């Protein structure tokens, strides 16, 4: 009865019941393809340490997965059309926090949440930069932050020549039950997949839609009553949490980490990986990170050390090819291939979020920029 | 007395049906001559009001009653005093004063570079003025653009700024979310508040005359549709003051006529509208009050009939012969 009355209320429009969707032959093929694809992917992920044994130890794979996390943290910032070069510094903070917590005797199950929480103050600080700066300006500010952290905090904490090795107080150990290369692989791969799942869910939700809107026109987004600052800080916190966890795992993997390992310039390399993977793409970032992180290590191993030093060359060549001929990155290639396998039409070309960085056109924007004002004006 | 309670539901229904069936009587509040007036149009001119008539008929079919606010009473919703902003050595605005009222269309005109868009940007918070006071609906405006949007300041841009990779409906939902989170009422149709975001989006898109696919990416729309969807998105945010920056540029004749009609209807329903436009015939025909800017300063202000005769305005637009 109440439903009928509600339906009669002024302003209500009648809602016809949507017809039941009929299953098309194409849908069946798509479902079957997806099921097979996901099964193969899971099987590949689970057996990867054993599949790749011929090429070298699982260390290479573990290293690649951690680089995958670092690249994912960079790629996430592509959602708001920005890129950070503070990732390596944030990884360093994660490493220091793990060291402190392990010294305090905390179990691994508690260490990880604390590491994530510890990333928030640094991310909020970077978020303050993001509220004032855009595009290249923001990236330079984050790089400056990385260098400042390196020259002050890390060198003071680790010692100029020091590191985690040599003194028992600064050693980082792997969690109990995950000390072997294979078992550690499952731990970090599980963590990477969880991070990817969270990022994917965020991107698919209304938050992701808002971030797309923010990236496309900050002025329109804000005059509609939505706060760009809140969304920017949220994204930077998400990115920072991923980077900090990556740093924590990196410490566990290496055990011995010299202070100069976390050179801020390394972030530029990771940024290159993110662009090659497809800036803003979750899957692209993970694949590019693992690919560019693990493959050079396998080359080192296969060439019995002869390829050491050529890894950067190899990465440079591949990244150059991707940037020149595949602007959407590996994610775009994967998307096109997958659509072909599924039997769908050609995929629309992917636009890199970086193409929308620092869009300030119009006379007013030019005048404001010339006057040194950061107005955020687009019109 | 609450404005919505002035007319009984029966009276409102009769009035709306009269408008829908006849489309002959259009009452303008303080129209161009400063007095209330009733226009009775001859049958040849009725065709011009056909879109509005159909819209009203559609709203009646949907069960919603358009509430006529005309002549219920106007109030000042926006007061701008001594607004000044410089970009380095460029005096973009210098001591600008302006008042906007509900159920009134106020025009801001001026030659290129006069500071019209800068004025809008100051009002919506995208630029921070060096000096001046902006009061909106009793609140002093000095917050972020987002806080102003939530207070009921809606706007469109000179170049439409839709979220191109999102669908038209997703664009509209952004406005609806603001209306809900800020608990705003739709001045022009209070019944919208009870609808879901999707239903609201459909209704408002229909109202502004968008007949395209609501699921299509906004970036794929032709220019005229970009303007109408941007207007719909602003309306979805339930603004009390709608600021339109050259809304008719790029529209064809039919679209422009529909657009003028829509603005008149919205204004009659109580919405305050601030309009920047280069099409003088449109501005003179639709605005109740006009402010002319030149080199960032107010050159003249008044009803259209006065502005049309103002020597300084004519000189600013046409130049002096000697």
Which features would summarize this protein structure in a list?
heterodimer, A: 379 residues, mainly alpha, 68% helix, 0% strand, disordered N terminus, disordered C terminus, B: 322 residues, alpha/beta, six-stranded mixed sheet, four-stranded antiparallel sheet, 12 helices
Work out the radius of gyration of chain A.
23 Å
Q: Mean pLDDT of chain A, rounded to whole units?
A: 79
The strands making up the biggest β-sheet of chain B line up spatially as: 8-9-10-5-11-12
Q: What is the approximate shape of chain B? A: globular
Q: Indicate the mean pLDDT of chain B.
A: 80
Give the total of beta strands of chain B: 12
Helix content of chain A: 55-70%
Distance between the termini of chain B: 58 Å
Strand content of chain A: under 5%
Compute the number of strand runs of chain A: 0
What's the number of helices of chain A?
15
From the spread of the alpha carbons, the general shape of chain A counts as globular
- Helix % of chain B is 25-40%
| Low-confidence runs of at least 5 consecutive residues of chain A | 1-14, 165-169, 355-379
Q: Biggest sheet of chain B: strands, sense, closure?
A: 6 strands, mixed
Largest interface: A-B, 36 and 54 residues
Order of helices and strands of chain B: HEEHHEEEHEEHEHHHEHEHEEHH
Distance between the termini of chain A: 52 Å
Query: Strand pairing plus helix content of chain A: what structural class?
Result: mainly alpha
